[in-house]
Design goal:
The chain has about 220 residues and is an alpha+beta fold. The chain has two domains: about 35-130, RlpA-like domain (Barwin-like endoglucanases, Beta Barrel); about 140-210, Sporulation related repeat (Alpha-Beta Plaits), CATH 3.30.70.1070. About 25% of the residues lie in helices and about 35% in strands. The strands form two sheets. It has a six-stranded mixed barrel with strand order 1-5-2-4-3-6. A four-stranded antiparallel β-sheet has the order 8-9-7-10, with helices on both faces. The longest helix is centred in the first third of the chain and has 22 residues, at about 1-25. The radius of gyration is 20 Å and the shape is globular. The protein starts with a helix and ends in a 6-residue tail after the last strand.
Length: about 220
């Protein structure tokens, strides 16, 4: 009898080990189009102003993230699987180092996805551009929304155009579909974009400073 119990226990341990191995998340490749599904967390005030692994100074109000394996400089689209919100971030730091987490978002990115309150959220991460790829023209814009429905994006653009100059829609093609990001202005200096974001904030919109290339209206 004891031999039979011992055999069952051994089998259970082996089975548990197999389950643990099968649940280990696969590391995402750095090629554009590669996808990883996992858990995102965020980090903010305690790290604000400190150097990141890339040597940049961490700014919690920039759209950046930490990842353990993707090359520094890689741009990824992160989608909150609970509410469908999407944000584009640039990997400039290493982490997270907590078991079971895939990516650490900046405060601004977490706010855009609705992750600040929960702390962690299930996400889909898609590589958009390899590390080291630079924008054709570095500029700053204020992003106030991202939609899967083009009509919703155009309605917000038209509403904002009555109050602000330079409202436009910037499409983003991802494997899961096309997103339409509503943005305002295009500035050579970040502080100019910050001033516009402060003017937009009272409208209740999630005004986020983003690095941008030339406007597109497809």
């Amino acid at each position: 009898m004891w031999r039979g119990v011992a055999g069952c226990l051994t089998f259970a341990v082996l089975l548990a080990g197999c389950c643990l191995v099968s649940r280990r998340p696969a590391r995402i490749e750095s090629r554009p189009g590669a996808v990883e599904v996992g858990t995102a967390s965020w980090y903010g005030p305690g790290f604000h102003g400190n150097p990141t692994s890339s040597g940049e100074i961490y700014d919690q109000y920039d759209l950046t993230a930490a990842h353990q394996t993707l090359p520094l400089g890689t741009r990824v689209a992160v989608t909150n699987l609970l509410n469908g919100r999407e944000v584009e971030v640039r990997v400039n730091d290493r982490g997270p180092f907590v078991k079971g987490r895939s990516i650490d978002l900046s405060y601004a990115a977490a706010r855009a996805l609705g992750a600040v309150g929960p702390g962690t959220i299930p996400v889909r991460i898609e590589v958009l551009a390899n590390g080291g790829v630079q924008l054709a023209a570095v500029a700053y814009s204020v992003q106030v929304g991202a939609f899967a429905d083009r009509d919703n994006a155009l309605r917000l653009q038209h509403d904002l155009a009555r109050r602000f100059d330079g409202a436009y829609v910037a499409p983003l093609d991802a494997a899961s579909g096309r997103y339409y990001r509503v943005r305002l202005g295009r500035f050579g200096r970040r502080d100019e974009a910050v001033a516009l974001a402060r003017a937009v904030a009272p409208l209740g919109l999630p005004a986020i400073i983003v690095e941008d290339a030339a406007p597109s209206a497809r």
